[in-house]
Design goal:
Distance between the termini: 55 Å
Number of strands: 0
Radius of gyration: 25 Å
Structural class: mainly alpha
Shape: elongated
Largest sheet: none
Number of helices: 6
């Protein structure tokens, strides 16, 4: 999905560049005041929506981004281990885990927006990371519950066989 988004963004940038070249060639013979107004309008519209992707960030900013993602994943893992010890319902445990690690997602979003990354990309990236984490938590929790139920059933069968 990320690759598709980046490819669409690259195609869009190419189309805009080609349109600008074609418009500039056609307007070379027009009045220069009209060209300056068009150039100012185009520049302001490009400035309003950033075309920067996380891959375009400087190396230091990318390191901070990857460290924040690593911290988020580490928080999820540590919180999941704690939740397993409490014996809560799967959904309640998943909600607590997600909320306890939300600060890392907020840090990531703030960092990317501060580095002028396209807001739609930032929102999509954080939304997909949250969704993936939630699905993984629920899947693992349900698998654990099934394994526990199977263990109880096997223990009861062994008692009945004796």
């Amino acid at each position: 999905m990320k690759k598709l988004t980046f490819m669409l963004l690259a195609i869009l940038m190419g189309v805009v560049a080609c349109d600008n070249d074609t418009a500039n060639q056609a307007n070379d013979e027009s009045v220069t005041s009209v060209e300056s107004v068009d150039a100012t309008a185009e520049a302001s519209s490009v400035d309003e929506e950033s075309l920067i992707t996380p891959g375009d960030l400087p190396e230091e900013a990318q390191k901070v981004m990857y460290q924040t993602i690593f911290d988020y994943n580490q928080c999820m893992m540590a919180s999941r281990l704690k939740a397993n010890q409490n014996g809560q319902s799967v959904q309640q445990a998943a909600n607590e885990i997600m909320s306890s690690c939300e600060t890392h997602m907020d840090e990531l979003k703030t960092h990317l927006l501060a580095n002028n990354v396209n807001e739609a990309l930032v929102m999509g990236m954080t939304k997909s990371m949250r969704g993936r984490a939630a699905r993984k938590l629920m899947t693992q929790g349900m698998n654990q519950m099934a394994a526990q139920a199977m263990a109880v059933e096997n223990a009861e069968k062994m008692k009945a066989a004796e």
